[in-house]
Amino acid sequence: MRLLVTRPKEDAASLVTLLKEKGHEAVLFPLLEIVAQPDGEKQLKDYKVSDIQALLVTSANGVRAFAQVDKRRSFHVLAVGAASAEAAREAGFKHVDSAEGDVISLEKLVREKCKPEKGKLLHIAGSSVAGDLKGLLEKDGFDFDRAVLYRADKVTGFSDPLKAEIKAGKIDGVLLYSPRTAASFAELIEQDGLKNDIKNMLAYGLSEAVASKIKHLAFKDIKIAATPDQEALLKIIREPEDEKMTEKKDDKKATDPKVIDVKAEEVKIKETAQKPETPKENTTKPDEKNKPGAASKDGKTPPKPEDPVEKALNAKKNEPVKKKGSFKTKAIAAGVLILAAGGAGAYFTQNMWVPKIKAQIAETLNIETASAQAQVSAEDIQALVGRIEALENKPAPSVQSVDVQPLLDRIVELENSLNSLKENVSTIQIGNGSEEKLAEFKELAARLEAVEGSEPQDLTPLQEETQRLNQLVQELNVRLSDVEVARIEARSSGENAQALIAGLSVLRQRLQTSTPYRAELQALSVLAQGDVVLEEAVQKLQDHAETGLASYSSLQASFEKTANEIVRASAVPESAGWVEQTVKNITSLVTIRNAPGNLNGEGPLGIVARAEHNVRAGDFTGAIGELRQLQGKPLEAATPWIDAVDARLKGDETLSLIQAHILSLLATAGGQG
């Protein structure tokens, strides 16, 4: 497939190589041109390595822009995806972590790797950014800053060669990596009137956001990567053999990618040089040589082959054939045999003649023979071998690696400070003063000489007065500081108290509905931080935050069922037999009610009657006081309702405590204000 690559040249090099390895032909036409921003370079000089918790990079262009203007590499880099992470490693950064390709995953990675209190986050970016990374991280409490090091300018139109290829249908697909690139591509297609020429073209988008910018164009199909990274994008690109299943891979000729420059007048194609075919020595089939009338290489018709029988009969009539070979050949063969025999003899008799030849050579060259040399004992040789083995087995001295990158970064910072100091010094201009200034200077010099020449005076009283005044000023400063702190605390306390009132109101409304109130309690807990009384009160409400507290109306409605269970439990003793249990089962099918107004009864029935009277009157405290007089099975039947009422009453008591404390804070703030 011939695929249009729209990435900037710096990013497209590796992509072109990958496409070529997969058998595709890449047509390179960058839609964005990367331009450096000098203001960002000046901004980087103000940051120290110790001040920056991590560098956030959302593109490989940002990494390259940083590497060109800043030599420091000891920063911790958090990259949005694999491509920008790889660019950071290639630039020399050692501590690099990668997210999953989008701003949301990068924000998650930052929360895992960083803490708000450990320093600033510096985002290395271009003039145009996608996603609200700043808002997400500041919401998490991080100190966020952004350095704009480059801008990506859009091209104003397709080149003429590229438009010709699109119109001719020679582009099979286009790769789009960012929403901005996709939007630029769509604009140029419409601008150059090519909307009807892309019907057979496929579009490959890195994400849904990219695809949304071109969905109005009539592509043959728009394919989206499963995950926003280059590896996933390349997986959805069809292999070349998918287009023509009958074509053999061995028949394909590899070609270099076609490169189309934005300002080029013609398309420059790098063609792979074809090797000349080696001519075949003989293209005539073996069986054609013997065919009658077959033409020879020189174009002449070969003579007709003779009949073997006739040839044999005629051979008898000819003279005897001479023997092959000659005397010269025989002599050479005999010489070779003699030399071979001599060499074999010398080899098998070397023990006899080699020592004599060695001795003769040594005597001629005045070299001592082995017999005259000092003999080395076997023990000495063994000791030497042992020493060599010990040296070989001795571990090499370990060299502790030293990370010099922080030192290099510090040197860079010092160089920047020195350059800044030089600039400041260069701005100081020293000029000659006027005559009036010179006269004034001489007058001051004369007065100084007069003072120095006069008799010394006793300055002790003046020094004491000065010391007293200084002490008084310090006391006044302390008092003013205390007043200012009190005003700030009062203002802060008043504002926080108002927020607490609002949070308490929301929580109280939720508690009236018998529903969970975890979110409302959490909001109030955040406002109560630092206030011991409120923190303890909020903690008391945590036990029922997930389930909620029963409202008084629901408690009143459920009491009737509880009362019936208490009466049934009291009707059957604990040691009851099967007859009593049968009676209990039968009574469970009907509602048992005590006579209205019978509040003086004894036993469980009287207790239930009085408790019911209290419930109807809204006196839940009196109701559970009556029910706690029960014993045994009746008390067990009443316990769940008693616990629910008790939790409700304690919750109300806690709310009242919170309200009273907040009101006291408001009163204090109002009095100080």
UniProtKB/TrEMBL annotation:
Gene3D superfamilies: 3.40.50.10090
Group of enzyme by EC: lyase
Tetrapyrrole biosynthesis uroporphyrinogen III synthase domain location: 14-234
GO-annotated cellular components: membrane
UniProt keywords, alphabetically: Coiled coil, Lyase, Membrane, Methyltransferase, Porphyrin biosynthesis, Transferase, Transmembrane, Transmembrane helix
Listed GO biological process terms: methylation; protoporphyrinogen IX biosynthetic process; uroporphyrinogen III biosynthetic process
The reaction(s) this protein catalyses: hydroxymethylbilane = uroporphyrinogen III + H2O
Region spans: Disordered: 265-321
GO molecular function, one term: methyltransferase activity
Recorded family membership: Belongs to the uroporphyrinogen-III synthase family.
Protein name stated in the entry: Uroporphyrinogen-III synthase
The species this protein was found in: Terasakiella brassicae
